[in-house]
Amino acid sequence: MTFERIKNLLRARRAGHQPTTDAGGPVLTAHPAAAIDIRPVETQMEADEVWALLSEQIEHGWDDCLPQPLAHDDDAFRPTLIGAWGQDGLIAGAFVMPDEQTADAFMANGVQHAAQMTLRAVAVTQGIAVAPEHRREGVGLKIKRFCDAWAAQHHACLMLSVITAHEALGLNQKTGHHILPTDVVPVIQIHDDATGTGCLIDLGPRDQTAGHSQWSIGVIGQTHGLTVHLGQYGATEDPPRGPDDITWIAHIGT
């Protein structure tokens, strides 16, 4: 089975899901009290508008190599642009997706089950941006919580992000994410309860040469047939590390 077929099967299985209210975040609806409508983009024009805002406002930490997602007419778990619209148009945007980069690495090493489990359990917020004239209004926090809830309702239990600015640090703190020091390496262990297979994901250290950068990992929901452990390797200048070097900080599942 090719990697694309694996991802298509996962998308098809999730496309018919029903949103829940207890998946680690708010119900995915508009925010009439604040006159803000937060949702995935619905047209290609909206997708282009959100992408432009992200590219313009995220100066450090934005990956120009990321492909721009298209607008989709379904609710599958795939790379998705999220927008926040107010009375004067788009005021904030975000890019959230399954952790395809780690899954691709597993596939390149011939470990299909690890790739499938990663796509099921781990999401990534690639960036959040708020228009300058709408900062300090709480919009960034609302869209951050929306991204967590959206991923959780698609059965992800972990949300990864990389903090490169003080504003991003505040958003991650307010949403209860684990903010790791710059000199440690996050570790995620995933176990399939049905087959007994497992994998260990080492996310790698953050390079500080281009500016401040540190991992943030949020527990956003419950697992579905998986048991997940979140940990970290301590600071060391002499890898490789082994299982005995991991400090476990969170557990999700049975």
UniProtKB/TrEMBL annotation:
Keyword Cytoplasm recorded: no
SUPFAM superfamilies in UniProt: Acyl-CoA N-acyltransferases (Nat)
Domain N-acetyltransferase residues, every copy: 36-202
Entry keyword set: Transferase
InterPro entries: Acyl_CoA_acyltransferase, GNAT_dom
GO molecular function: acyltransferase activity, transferring groups other than amino-acyl groups
UniProt name for this protein: Acetyl transferase
Originating organism: Bifidobacterium cuniculi
